[in-house]
Design goal:
Elements: H1 2-5, E1 19-22, E2 27-29, E3 49-53, E4 58-61, E5 77-79, E6 84-88, E7 91-93, E8 113-115, E9 118-122, E10 125-127, E11 154-156, E12 159-163, E13 166-168, E14 171-173, E15 186-188, E16 191-195, E17 198-200, E18 203-206, E19 214-216, E20 219-223, E21 226-228, E22 231-234, E23 247-249, E24 252-257, E25 260-262, E26 265-266, E27 270-271, E28 274-275, E29 282-283, E30 289-290, E31 294-299, E32 303-304, E33 350-352, E34 363-366
Parallel strand pairs: 1-3, 2-4, 3-6, 4-7, 5-8, 6-9, 7-10, 8-11, 9-12, 10-13, 11-15, 12-16, 13-17, 14-18, 15-19, 16-20, 17-21, 18-22, 19-23, 20-24, 21-25, 22-26, 23-28, 24-31, 25-32
Antiparallel strand pairs: 26-27, 29-30, 33-34
């Protein structure tokens, strides 16, 4: 509040212009601060310029049971249209949605972070958000539970950049009058770019669930990112088809550049990585189902595990990418390592700026298109240099397999 209003509040000194909050420990929230923007929020709604330097700490909700056994459900953070938020090296966890979020005018109602303004997420983690606040979540969850969250981790209706970050273990389950969980990890209705990031292990359930990892209604760009091990659980209520378990493009457009989408499942292990066409598309202002039209554009070299979204027809790679489970492989966030022999290894040329001489000059990054345009990625999600080995080719996705003989586990980070 002091940062938003530039006035002294609650013992905090007055802010001045864009302010920075540096966490010295985990910020634990037990009660909501407000209901000013799409439901209850644990922290004041961000309405001006603000940076939160997490220093590796978390912002998290602490569940408190009431006399009926229910929990104190609320979202962690919300950003208004006038707000500009930078989150660096922070974890957002255990946020959920209160019952007063408007499920009709708001398609998603995310549990972790809701944005109508501008957000940048760097070297950060969004995990464990969107769970049922009333009790431990049954598996499979009941999509008719009115206390559940339609979007798990992040909802963007503004402008958002996510870099070197991991979105995992978030859950979207439909509540009434909603009919379906959409976007276990990320729900995008605005403009969103995902750089060198991982969306993994998220879950969406309902009558016609979409996007266990990501659901898109806006404009999205995925560059050197991984969408893996996300799941949809369609219920028997209402029937119908589902969108992609990893990425579902219900409306708007998604551009994939050197990214990997694989090992996403529906129900009992049926692979369905990517989807752009289902008969029931969304909910309009009156609560009626509507149709939409989503599109995917491929640039560079991508890998779609099951070949969905016309990957083969667009000359993209398919098949098992040989990913290791999500783990600490160095760097500030969890990643999926590539195993030796993965088809994602050494697929993308690295572009160097020519200085008029025959030797290579300043690096531009991994190639974005076949005409030699570079996307500017010179390191992976952990900060490991691309390519490996030097003067080789870049790997698809957020992880660059280190291929220096005898030194596989040593990280060579940019700036070291």
């Amino acid at each position: 509040t002091a940062a938003n209003t530039d006035t002294s509040t609650g013992g905090c000194p007055a802010g001045r212009g864009e302010d920075t909050i540096k966490l010295t420990g985990d910020a634990t929230l037990t009660t909501p601060n407000n209901t000013d923007l799409q439901g209850a929020n644990g922290l004041p709604v961000v309405t001006s310029g603000l940076s939160i330097d997490g220093r590796g700490h978390a912002i998290k909700r602490i569940p408190i049971l009431d006399s009926d056994g229910g929990e104190n459900g609320f979202r962690l953070l919300a950003v208004a249209a006038s707000g500009n938020l930078l989150l660096n090296r922070v974890t957002l966890t255990n946020g959920t949605v209160s019952g007063d979020c408007d499920f009709v005018s708001n398609l998603f109602c995310a549990g972790g972070l809701y944005n109508e303004g501008t957000v940048t997420l760097l070297d950060s983690t969004v995990s464990g958000n969107g769970r049922l606040p009333a009790r431990p979540m049954p598996l499979p969850p009941d999509p008719r539970d009115p206390r559940s969250s339609r979007c798990g981790g992040i909802e963007n209706n503004g402008a958002m950049n996510i870099a070197n970050s991991t979105i995992y273990d978030n859950i979207a389950v439909a509540g009434q009058p909603a009919t379906t969980g959409r976007g276990g990890g990320i729900c995008n209705g605005g403009t969103l770019a995902l750089f060198n990031s991982t969306v993994s292990g998220n879950y969406a359930a309902g009558a016609i669930p979409d996007g266990g990892g990501i659901v898109n209604f806006g404009t999205m760009l995925l560059i050197h990112s991984v969408v893996s091990e996300n799941e949809l659980f369609p219920s028997s209520i209402g029937g119908g088809e589902t969108g992609g378990s990893g990425l579902s493009v219900i409306d708007g457009s998604v551009t994939l550049i050197n990214s990997l989408i694989a090992n996403n499942t529906v129900g009992e292990g049926v692979f369905f990585d990517c989807g752009t066409s289902i008969p029931l598309r969304g909910i309009n202002a009156s609560g009626s189902l509507t149709e939409g039209s989503g599109s995917i554009t491929f640039q560079g070299k991508n890998l779609i595990g099951d070949g969905s979204c016309d990957a083969t027809a667009n000359d993209q790679l398919t098949g098992d990418p040989l990913l290791e489970p999500l783990a600490d492989n160095g760097g500030p966030t969890l990643t999926h390592a590539l195993r030796q022999g993965s088809p994602a290894i050494d697929q993308i040329d690295f572009i160097y700026r020519q200085n008029g001489k025959s030797e290579r000059g300043k690096p531009l990054g991994c190639e974005e298109t076949t005409d030699g345009t570079a996307v500017g990625i010179i390191a992976d999600q952990r900060g490991v240099r691309r390519p490996q080995p030097v003067h080789g080719k870049c790997d698809i996705g957020a992880y660059e397999l280190r291929q220096k003989p005898g030194n596989q586990n040593q990280l060579e980070r940019i700036g070291e």
